[in-house]
Amino acid sequence: MQFRVIQRILGLLLMLFSLTMLPPIMVGWLMGDPDLMPFWKSGAILLVIGGVLWLPVRRVHAVLRTRDGFLLVTLFWVVLSMAGALPFVFSDAVASSFTNGVFEATSGLTTTGATVYIGLDGFPRSILFWRVELHWLGGMGIIVLAVAILPMLGVGGMQIYKAETPGPVKDAKLEPRIAETAKLLWYTYLILTILCAVAFRLAGMDWFDAVGHSFSVLGTGGFSNHDSSLAFFDSPAIHYIAVIFMFLAGANFGLHFIAWRGVSLKPYLEDSEFRFYTALTLGAILLVAVSLYAYGTYPDVSDALRYSAVHVVSVMTSTGLFLGDHSVWPSFLPIFITLLVTSGGCSGSTGGGMKAIRFLLLIKQAVREINLLVHPRAHMPIKVNGQVIDEQIVKAVWGFFFIYAALFMIFMLGLMADGQNQVTAFSAVAATINNMGLGLGDVSSNFADLSDFAKWWLALCMIMGRLELMTVLVLLTPAFWRR
Fold this sequence. Notes:
- The protein has helices at 3-18, 22-31, 37-54, 66-83, 86-90, 98-109, 125-140, 142-149, 157-164, 178-203, 207-218, 236-249, 253-261, 266-270, 272-294, 301-316, 333-340, 356-374, 391-417, 422-433, 452-466, 470-473, 478-481, and strands at residues 383-384, 387-388.
- By secondary structure, it is mostly helical.
- A hairpin with a 2-residue loop joins strand 1 (383-384) and strand 2 (387-388).
């Protein structure tokens, strides 16, 4: 293990992260916030800590191995979650405990959107901007951003990229150099964010809300500047703009780039994962809309469709923005809505969940097993995009599914042992391990009433979910540390 190289990169990235305190300072200054010292103090602390880590090993250079990438990525997400808590802790307006600050920062960076804060409409604008900035930085992956803008790292960027990027297939590159691929993904991300902010502004939001909600939507985060989230805006146009851009954020950003470069919809139409993601989303919207109308929850068809579209797409993409409390919807709808996030967005997106490609492969494998009962000697390869999928990938997906289910139960039992009821424990884990943020029971509106243990427990759950479990779990194996 190359600890000195890891220390150098960690120091560099912490110093880079200290610069993210500047945008909230600028926003706060423009909006007239009286106290910007929390961000100055936080930035100075991170700059000093990063410098102390970097200076002794600044001349140490080596190529990262895969194991080094796993450790670095996990360390950085844990450290950043604590670093991101500092402005909340230092702010007199928020008056946050360190536990609440870490939970909120972890939720922001992992784009979960579960919050422990109430009364957001009265928060300083700089703090509100910091919350959504964390979403935007964490959405595409702040370490992938570092790979894109810090070629001086020169330490095997592919190992970092593979350790952080979501999806079962991580070798696909848009350009030969991984730094160029990272740049293209972030350019696409930036363009969509700008388009979303402009659309929100044209639909009636002020610029502060438009930019903030575009960060939340494209990062599939879910933090809003208002306690009532999208319901604060009595505008169907705003609601449908959010639906469109949440859906786009849940699709593969590499696919967006390829389609835009060729000025063609063909890449979307030919991609099996995108077709499955689209079909599942539209089917769920229709089912929920019909149910809401049939049960009389929303007697107007247009309202039933709008509420269905916002909540289904928000949960499917793990965004977590909402129009109302779907936990009080009738019959099977609350559980159905919560379970939708299991499929999640596409690989290479900012969405959470298991990812649509894994869900698709699980379905194809299940169908194959059923057919093999009838034709036991038949050769039935699984295909995606017309290409045969390696059996190792199929086995890896089944392994991931088992680990996902096992960890889900462990985290759920941990919350129940802490005194939470079954519905609250189940939905809190579903909301955090899938980075979705919306829960049922005692966490249907926020996570403020949970114990400190539960908040730290769920913060770990969020980080593991963002790094897709394996990146963290591999650190716990003896083989990882063996020379």
